[in-house]
Design goal:
heterodimer, A: four-stranded antiparallel sheet, 32% helix, B: mainly alpha
Chain lengths: 199, 223
């Protein structure tokens, strides 16, 4: 649940008095032109950016009060893929999954169609494959809240279908998804939030 | 929590080992800097032996600052730092894990290279043990102080020189007690007091540096 959230970047107000509530199985799609604050809102939700006003509540508790509990329930997939080129695909995923409290790497790689690449160094992957590996964290370390920042960028249609399927199953299991996207991405019934027109 | 801590240390060590550049360049810089001194001050064995503790310490200090810039920067640039900050581990513990890995990858190789250079500089044998003990106590402090500098300069595109400017003045106490310990041993005096001072500095850095560095990292995530 979000209450009266505001965000100011470099003295420019991106949004204010933003309030919404997401129950289990809910999805929120953030829309808006470049610079409207979609990524900033996701970073504020994750707790990476401090909110200029308002608060983010998780299970009724302010997320800044108990960040550890919130972080365990959260998986954030940002713009950057956070992969180390000298580590193999399985090692990269294994590290993040282990840190997030998960563990099973092989099923996650299969779910994103990366099983054949498991022992290759990440440095040789294409942009789409890197993105898929980043998204595999969603499967490897199951968490209730997914924060996805432009998850569909660089994905081919096959991978997009897999991702859409993952999102659907996640929501069926009671998970919550907040995704920023400017592409038309059909993830079924969802709330939409249009952020301002940008600068 | 211990598992996550060890996972980060293991990952950073593996990355440092695979890239190889950090450990290699730090040790090579240390060896070359020390080797330059006999050429600079002339081949007078007594003079070189006299300045050996200071030369080794200053060279170790400079070599240690060389690799600090990368401590958080690589993770900052590829987005890993965001995810690390979102792990259940407190940021302070995370900083400690990364600093420990940094010390294992750069500080320990310096220790290994030291006996060779002590021999080169004609350092009397009675000073060797204390020199190694002092470096073993002093270099972790340097890594911890360096973590503060590395975290604070994350927002700067080329922070390398800035890290050195921030960290080197802070490292002066370590240098003073480090050299004092070796000098005491060379004069046949007990080196306990300066070694204990180094230990004290290490404990203080261990307690304070992760907090300061975590605050720096947090600032960089917000920009």
């Amino acid at each position: 649940m979000v209450e009266g959230l505001a965000c100011v970047r470099s003295e420019r107000e991106l949004f204010r008095d933003l309030s919404f509530r997401l129950g289990s199985g809910a999805a929120l799609v953030l829309r808006g032109p470049n610079g409207a604050g979609k990524s900033s809102l996701l970073r504020v939700l994750a707790g990476l950016l401090p909110a200029a006003g308002g608060r983010v509540l998780w299970d009724g508790v302010d997320t800044t009060d108990r960040p550890g509990t919130f972080h365990r329930a959260l998986c954030y997939v940002g713009h950057q893929d956070a992969l180390k080129p000298t580590m193999t695909v399985a090692e990269n995923l294994g590290f993040w999954a282990g840190l997030g409290g998960g563990g099973e790497v092989a099923p996650a790689l299969r779910a994103l169609g990366l099983a054949a690449l498991a022992s290759l160094p990440t440095g040789i992957l294409s942009a789409g494959q890197r993105r898929r590996l980043n998204l595999a964290r969603l499967v490897a370390a199951p968490s209730r809240l997914w924060l996805l920042d432009e998850p569909t960028v660089t994905l081919d249609s096959g991978a997009l279908d897999r991702l859409t399927d993952l999102v659907r199953r996640h929501r069926d299991g009671g998970g919550i998804v907040v995704a920023a996207t400017h592409a038309d991405w059909n993830i079924g019934a969802c709330d939409r939030l249009d952020l301002g027109a940008g600068p | 929590m211990t598992g996550a801590f060890l996972a980060i240390v293991g990952r950073d060590l593996r990355l440092a080992f695979r890239r190889g550049g950090d450990t290699g360049s730090v040790v090579a810089f240390f060896v070359i800097t020390v080797t330059l001194f006999p050429f600079g001050v002339g081949p007078e064995p007594n003079l070189i032996a006299r300045i050996a503790p200071g030369v080794l310490w200053v060279a170790a200090l400079l070599a240690a600052t060389l690799s600090l810039d990368r401590l958080f920067r690589a993770d900052h640039e590829d987005g890993s730092l965001d995810l690390l900050a979102l792990s259940p581990l407190p940021l302070e513990v995370l900083v400690l894990a990364k600093t420990l890995a940094h010390w294992l990858a750069t500080g320990v190789p310096l220790l290994v290279a030291t006996p060779l250079l002590a021999l080169l500089l004609n350092l009397p044998l009675q000073g060797w043990g204390v020199l190694l003990a002092a470096l073993a106590l002093g270099t972790p402090s340097l890594s911890l102080l360096g973590a503060i500098g590395a975290a604070l300069t994350l927002g700067v595109r080329r922070g390398g020189v800035l890290v050195a400017l921030l960290v080197l003045p802070l490292a002066v106490p370590v240098l003073i007690f480090g050299v004092a310990a070796v000098d005491a041993a060379l004069m046949g005096l007990p080196a306990t007091t300066p070694l204990m001072a180094l230990g004290g500095l290490l404990l203080a850095a261990l307690v304070l540096a992760p907090w300061a560095a975590a605050a720096g990292v947090r600032l960089s995530l917000e920009s």
